[in-house]
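Handout, section B. The chain below has 184 residues.
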Amino acid sequence: MQTELVEAARHGDHDAFEALAVSVSPRLYAVARLILRDTYLAEDAVQETLVHIWRALPSLRDAARFDGWSYRLLVNACADAGRQRRRIATELRVVTTPTTMPDPSSELADREQLERGFRLLKPEQRAAVVLHYYLGLSTREIADALGVPVGTAKSRLHYATETLRGVLDADDRGTQASAGGHAG
């Protein structure tokens, strides 16, 4: 069905593009939100991506490659938004994700550790992590979505994983040291 919408939209069908945009926007937003860590910037990045998709859609040769192509456009929009954020603002916004159930304290601690590690990642590493662990893309699909060689995608994923592992290991060592310090 999506391939049919892409084909129709490629040929200027506004209704098909609207249906396509409605169907892909939630996924694009989720990825942008994870990469940018900011609701407003993620919304802007998705809007920019949808505009770019509409303008560039006639040049897409293979409708089956729409997902990877649209993720590449989104990652580029996220990079632009990140650069804009650094240029314009030093404002800090606390963004909370609504949940239906409160987090148990251990899950909250784990989430805080991952969030701390995620902030240390370069945007291109963050994009690779989101595409792999959130969307389940292979390294070949990540490379295609980011417009980089497969080796570069593997490298970004590897270094991001090592950074996250280092943060978690450092926190574990700190927890063990403080627990041992109180016992003696």
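Note. The longest helix spans residues 150-183. Compare this with the example in section A.
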